[in-house]
Structure formats: C-alpha cells, structure tokens
Amino acid sequence: MDSAGIPFFFRNAFVMVHELPYVAYVKAALFLPAFGTFIDDHTSFIRRYFDMDVSTSDDVVAGVEVGFAPNYPFASASVFEGLAGGQGAAVNFG
Q1: For 39-82, what is the HEC assignment?
Q2: Alpha-carbon separation of residue 23 from 11, 50, 54, 77, 91 (angstroms)
Q3: CA distances (Å), 13 to each of 24, 25, 62, in order?
C-alpha cells in the first residue's frame, strides 16, 4: 500500500466479536502483526530489527486474529497478507 501523497493511513481498522468464553475474541482487520509484548514506545528498536516500522503503511496487514485473555495465561494467533506484499502468521502466548 503506497501512502505517497496521502497524509494518513489506517493502522488499525477491524470488526470484532468479543466477550466469548475465556474472554476470547475473533477479529478481521487491517492491523500491525502482533510482535512480543505491546509497549508504549511503538518506535522501539526491537521492531526496527524486524523491519516493523509503524510510522509507515508498509507493515499494515489484512487478516484474521483469534485469541483469549482470561487474565493469565493469554494467547493470540493471526494469519495475514501484507498490503505491501507477502503472507505471514504470528503467535503470542504467555
């Protein structure tokens, strides 16, 4: 997705079903793939090593994510296709 000439882009846009048993959810979305823990600094050096610069639209993907978080443990899994090309999946748990 080329954002040249456009001063904004969607980083998150989704339809979600939530409050399922075990605080489970399912969402179909445009989103940034889950990577480790979510931290306040979205420009973290950790993301840079994986070419996940959230200041551009290149890392926004379209896909589906499912997860649960009843408190602890938590887990999420997603499959997606990059708007800039490529396919992938992400799994997080803890």
Answers
A1: CCCCCCHHHHCCCCCCCCHHHCEEEEEEEECCCCCCEEEEEEEE
A2: 24, 30, 28, 15, 17
A3: 19, 15, 9
Residue 33 preceded by cis peptide, ω within 30? no
Q: How far is residue 65's CA from residue 28's CA, in Å, rounded to a whole number?
A: 7
Which domain covers residue 78, as residue numbers? 13-93
Residue corresponding to tokens 């969402």:
27
Report pTM. Answer: 0.70
Whether residue 8 is contained in a domain is answered as no
Q: Which pLDDT score, from 0 to 100, does residue 77 have?
A: 92
- In one-letter notation, the amino acid at residue 69 is A
pLDDT value of residue 45: 64
Residue 66 lies in a domain: yes
- Residue 91, number of CB atoms within 10 A of its CB: 10
